[in-house]
Design goal:
It is built from five helices and six strands; from the N terminus they run E-H-E-H-E-H-E-H-E-E-H. The chain has a six-stranded mixed β-sheet, with helices on both faces. It has helices at residues 13-25, 40-47, 63-71, 90-95, 112-124, and strands spanning 4-9, 29-34, 51-55, 81-85, 99-100, 103-107. By secondary structure, it is an alpha/beta fold. Strand 3 (51-55), helix 3 and strand 4 form a beta-alpha-beta unit. The chain is globular. The protein starts with a strand and ends with a helix.
Amino acid sequence: MKKHRILIVDDEVGVTRLLKLNLEATQRFEVKVVNDPREAVEIAVGFRPALILLDIMMPGLDGGEVAEQMQARPSLNDVPIVFLTAVARKDEVKERGGVIGGRPFIAKPVDMPELLARIEEHLAK
């Protein structure tokens, strides 16, 4: 079975380590982690992920800026991006149908069943 490639971009090492372990435990994903948002675009170009999990609030370069840079690249502009945020509460995300500003969002701390469902939903498109 071919594994889907997931790129996680988040400056919090603990968060990325936990997400990577949980996603890889399903044996359905190959996961690459980037903790420095300034490296995210180049790593994404080389890794060619099927989906990107992108933190919003990061030092130096926020998730919105990283997403814009990624979508400016022809090889990445059709890769779905799901934002991770500690700013919105789970109930806020739920009220908005998991979409804020036209983009899918998941509130932190991440609920793994919810995350897996959102990943599957976007990979099926």
